Amino acid sequence: MKNKIFDSKATEIIQHKLQEVQTKLTHQDYLNHYILETLESFAFRYFDSPLAPEQISNNTMRVIAVEKGIKEAIKIKNIQLRAGISELVKRVSKEQGPTILREIRVKLERHSEHSGSCQVTARVSFGHPDHRFIEGTFVEKLSLFRFEDEIHFRNTLAKHLEVTCELFEF
Fold this sequence. Notes:
Oligomer: single chain
Number of domains: 1
CATH topology: Aspartate Aminotransferase, domain 1
Strand order of the largest sheet: 1-2-3-4-5
Largest sheet: 5 strands, antiparallel
């Protein structure tokens, strides 16, 4: 009898916490804050000197880093990116300080109060010095997912960030 009461109380507490989290995540500001914190975490994992994550529109957040460590970048697994960085090194002398720009971006689209879709993008520009992401000057990896509610979004975002950030791996 004691275990049934305990199980019932534990279930009640868990349900209450889930509802509390869902209520918080329903608010766009809270969800955007969550995305910015997650981007910051990933930036410190994949970038040498990331800038602060920023919200660039109502539904788009990003974090970037301009990096000078071209020697390390040449070790990147992505063949297309490695070729672009090699061209950068040939085009821009060491004295001029060639740079690459890395970016992680999250774009959120709401379809209803709780559901929506999310586009996660990781990209690297070798278009020194402007880094405007003009065709032929960058490589990107995209991942798109749909979510039924905010908890599903929270549990899925990191997985998709991991997939796109494979672009940065050596």
